[in-house]
Amino acid sequence: MRSCYRRNPLIFSAFFFSLAVAFSTLAVTPAGAQSGNITASYFGFQCGTGKMTNCPNATWPSSVAQPGMIRLWDSQVQWHLLNPGRGEYRWNNLDAYLDSIADHQPRDVMYTFGYTPCWATKGECERAWGSPFPPDDLSSTGSQSFNSFVSALLDHCTAKKHCVKNLIKYWELWNEANAPHYWSGSVPQLYQLMAPAVKMIREKVPGAIVLTPPANRGDTDWMREWLNQENKNGRLSDIYSFHLYLQNNLPEPRFHTVKEMVDLKNGTTGWADTPWVNSETNFDARTFQCDSKYSPEECIGQMVRWHIIHYSYGAQQLSWFFFNTTIGRQSDYAAAYKTMMDWLIGGHFTGPCTPSSNVVSCPFVEGNGRHAIFAWTFNGNGNGQYTPPGQVADYKTLSGETSPVSAGKPVAVGAKPIMLEAAN
Length: 424
What we know:
Number of domains: 2
Strand order of the largest sheet: 5-4-3-2-1-9-8-7-6
Mean pLDDT: 91
C-alpha cells in the first residue's frame, strides 16, 4: 500500500490504536450471532446494469467465482420498467433472469423494490428512471397501483414455467429509502406502501424472507425510525438490511460504521436476535473499483478481509455490486473470491476478528470440523509476523498453496489473508 503508515510511525500508531479500540468495542458488544454454518447464499452479487462489463441482458457471469445469491437491483426489473402503464406489463427482462437463474441452480434470489412509474404519481418523474415520489393513490391502507403490480409480479411465470414465487425467496423493501432520490416520502408512508405487499408476499411465496428497506451511508437515524415504525404498527421484516461500501478505506477501520448500524439493531426493542446483512457493497460507490493508490494484491486482500470481518461478527450476507465488472471479469480477483468461498462455506467463526500488534486474526472451524485461524496484517506491507498456536500444522494462501508450519515459528503475513489449519 502506498501509505504514510510506512513512513510515519506516529501516524501508524495512532491509526492502529483507533483500529484496536474499534475491534475491542466490537468484541465486547458482538454485532450479532452467526446462525449456523456459512452457506453459498452468504455471498451475494448484483448483475445487469446494462453495462457490457456487468453481465447485461441476463448473461450469467462465466467466472470461476459463483456467489450463491443474486440481487436483482439495477437489473432493469424495477417497478417502473416492469409496469410502464396502468395494467401494462413488460416481463422480458425479468423472464431472461428467471430462466437464467433456473439454469444456474442452486441459487437464491433477492428482489428489491424501488422507483414509482410515472403513470402512478404526479411527482417529478423521468420515464427511464421512474420517480422517488409515492404513488398518488397511497393511503393508510396502501396503494392499489402498487398492490396490483406486486400481485402480478408474484403470479408471473416465464414461458418455460419458471415462476417468481418459486425462484425469488428474498424480498427487500425499497432500495435506499433514506436517500431522497430513491424515496421522497416519509417513513410512515413507506410502511403504508409496503405492509399490504408483504402480506401478499407471505401468502404467495413459500418460505418468503423479507428484508428491511436498506439505508445507505451508515444512516442510523433513518433505520431507527424504520425499526420503530415496525414496532409500532407490526413487524414486516425478517432480516435487518443496510448498504455500506468501503469508500476506499481499509476494511478494519471502515467496519466501525457497520458496527454502528448493527448496534442500533441490537439496541432496539425486539430486534437484537434479528439476522443482519450488508446487501450492497463494493470498493467505492462512485467508481465501483479499488483506488489506484493500492496495488492489485492489496485490493484483493481488502475484498477478502471485508467479507471475513463481516461474517466473523455475524453477518449473513455481503452482496457485491457490479460484481462481474469488479471481480468476475478479473481472473486474479475471481480466483481469490472462489478460494475464499471454498474456505468459508460449511464452516463458522467461533469469535470475532481481533488485532494483536499489527496482525488481525479470526478463529474459525472449517466445514470438515478442522480448527483454523485467518490472519493478515492490515498495513499491507507484507512484513507482518504471526506466531500461531502449537496445534497449527499448515497454512493456505489465496493463490492455492499449502505450506507446513513449524511449532513456535512465526509465519509471514500480509494484506491477503492466509488460513492456518490445525493438525486435525
